[in-house]
Amino acid sequence: MTETSVPEVSIRTGQRNRQVAIASQWQLTWWSFKKHKLATVSLWVVGLMYFISLFCEFIAPDNPSKPNRRSVYQPPQMIHFIDKVDGSTRIRPYVYKMNRIRDPETLRISYERSGDKIYLKLFGEGPKYEFWGLWETKIHLLATENPREKFFLFGADRLGRDMFSRVMYGTRISMSIGLVGVAISLVLGILLGGLSGFYGGRVDVVIQRLIEFVLSLPTIPIWLALAASLPPSWPIYQQYFVITLIVSMVGWTELGRVVRGRFLAMKNDDFVVAARLDGVSEARVIFRHMLPSLTSHIIASLTLAIPLMILAETGLSFLGLGLQPPAISWGVLLKEAQNIISISQAPWLFIPGGAVVIAVLAFNFLGDGMRDAADPYGH
Amino acid sequence: MIWRYILKRVFWMVPFLFAVSIVAFLLIQAPPGDFLTTYMAKLGESNEVLDQATIDNLRQRFGLDQPIYVQYFKWISRLIVGDFGMSFEWRQPVSDLVWERMGLTLCLSFATLLFTWAVAFPIGVYSAVRKYSIGDYIATTIGFIGIATPNFLLALILMYIGVVYFGSDVGGLFSPEFKNAAWSWAKVWDLMKHLWLPVVVLGTSATASLIRIMRANLLDELNKPYVDTARAKGLSEFWLIMKYPVRVALNPFISTIGWVLPNLVSGAVVTAIVLSLPTAGPLMLQALLSQDMFLAGAFVLLLSSLTVVGMLISDILLVLLDPRVKYD
After folding, report:
1. CA atoms of A60 and A52, how far apart (whole Å)
2. Shortest distance, CA B182 to any CA of chain A (angstroms)
3. B34 C-beta neighbours (distance < 10 Å), count
4. CA distance A170 to B252
5. Are strands A142-144 and A109-122 parallel, antiparallel or unpaired?
């Protein structure tokens, strides 16, 4: 048994070796990335979240800003799939209807599950929306069969707005702030880190001191002061842009350090020296020869910078200095949970916090996996 | 030699602090209008009106009609002698308002740092020595969640648990009867009883990253030949690990003062707002929101200076404790 299996294995590894020998760097990186189970799962999670941000109008069953007087603080409803009617069993998604009860003495509203079912269907009709501003449609991923009824997977907030829809819309803003912020830090980090590592000497000293300075500042007081100077009357997109800018001011330092270290190490590598001796211009040496071999490291650092920005935006909005309400982000949603009375009455207001934790964890694992995979020749 | 290094580092502080003061000043200058317009608006709310002479007088005193560098110079030169200006909202000198709160902030940050070390050290060592054991996995998982959970969310969840399951409000740093009392041992004891919650909230993420660092560093050291040598000579496993590799792996603990402190001070601001602690955070937020600029500026400046000083301390300690770190 062992005698037959050994050559088989060696043939396989032989093939593998041949594959490895001719594989591109990206191929190698991908193979070594796939070995990290957690990172691969995180890639799916992050992908799903960006999918949600692209299609949030379609995924959200309701308009996130529309108050519903009749469902204030309604608790979450579970989706059930197995429907038993008159002894026959079918698979059909439904939720139980909640009845509103007002305590006659305290006038407090509470909800009680009734036996009535609200049937749901895929691609059903809900409130009208504009799909990417292109065309109007009523089709939602999940909708009640009777358009007059509503269901609340994550419960409802103090105005009876559907938390599930709000979290979905919040995903769009929170996740994209991370991306846009990272794009800004990318430019700053590569520019300053590259200058620092490429020229060395006095430029390096100055930029290193600058990075140390930025790192030594306590970020939140500075952000607060910056954000407080924004007029709250600004339109949402303007707020969004400025908040992103503020948030990205920390992200670049780490990237700058990575780029600098790599540039310093690579400056005297044979291929760079060869290019320079060939009379290639400095810009071309940097962009054509040095930066491409950094790409994977840069992508890894960027991935690790995104969660910092998501956390930053969440913190600022939570304090009321970031995005302002009609805008919906996870931080804005969590602001509703600031009040201990409202969360003890409606603990489902914490759900956006769960979204933050999942996103940050996923980005961290993804970034760790990418960092390990970024150097496929390393091990 | 070492004194020269310390002197040099202290000397480096001057441009850093100078830069910090410029940043703080620019930040408080950023909002539209100046202190005086805000002040007059404040007075207007309570139907007080300033006559033109007083306005001109104030304007001149704060140098508001002069270019911005003159204003900065006036601000900083008064600041050096300890005059932080007036708080418009509280109608009190800023220095009366900030010191007690800064003291509590410092106390909270220091307690959190100690907590972070006390927790991260044994867990980090354990995770490295018993790599891939159940305990290691648990520590790693908790560590990751600790990093991913924003401070304020953790604070909210603990408050929620406190209110719903224990029926007590866990916010604040003092019981009501001590809030305005003079300092005494009983008050200090009361502070201790309240301090643990913000310390845990604040310390979790720093603890989590320290555990990861400690584990990674110790793992690098554990495979080195000197460890084998010591083991071959018959040293007990506990002393062996404590005496050599742990000491080498300890460096980042010291250098963390530098980066943990900015994070702590930052985190303390948000956490304090959620838990309504009488530290710098809530007052600063209020000052920023009401554009009480001297007060806000004093806080931004003091908090930033705190972290810059922390960086200095950690650099000096590192050189003192590790002869391999070159001081030039």
Report:
1. 9
2. 29
3. 16
4. 38
5. antiparallel
For chain B, what is the domain count?
1
Within the 216-255 window of chain A, which residues sit less than 8 Å (CB to CB) from chain B?
Answer: 216-222, 224-226, 228-229, 231
pLDDT tens-digit series, residues A263-285 = 877 877 888 888 888 888 888 88
| CATH code assigned at B231 | 1.10.3720.10
Q: Kindly identify which residue of chain A lies nearest to residue B303, measuring between CA atoms.
A: A218
* DSSP characters over B51-100: -HHHHHHHHHHTTTTS-HHHHHHHHHHHHHTT---EETTTTEEHHHHHHH
Question: Is the Cβ of B251 closer than 8 Å to some Cβ of chain A?
Answer: no
Average pLDDT, chain A: 79
Identify whether B322 is part of a domain.
Answer: no
Q: Where are the domains of chain A?
A: 73-156, 166-378
Distance CA A300, CA A370 (A): 5
Residue B153 in contact with partner chain A when CB distance is under 8 A = yes
Angle, helices B293-321 vs B2-29, to 10°: value is 160
In this prediction the pTM is 0.80
Amino acid at B59: R
Question: Distances from the Cα of A84 to the Cαs of A88, A89, A322, B38, in angstroms?
Answer: 6, 4, 48, 67
Determine whether domain A166-378 maps to CATH 1.10.3720.10: yes
The residue among A154, A185, A106 whose CA lies nearest residue A346 is A154
Mutate to test the interface with A, among B109, B152, B201, B293 (most CBs of A within 10 A): B152
ipTM: 0.75
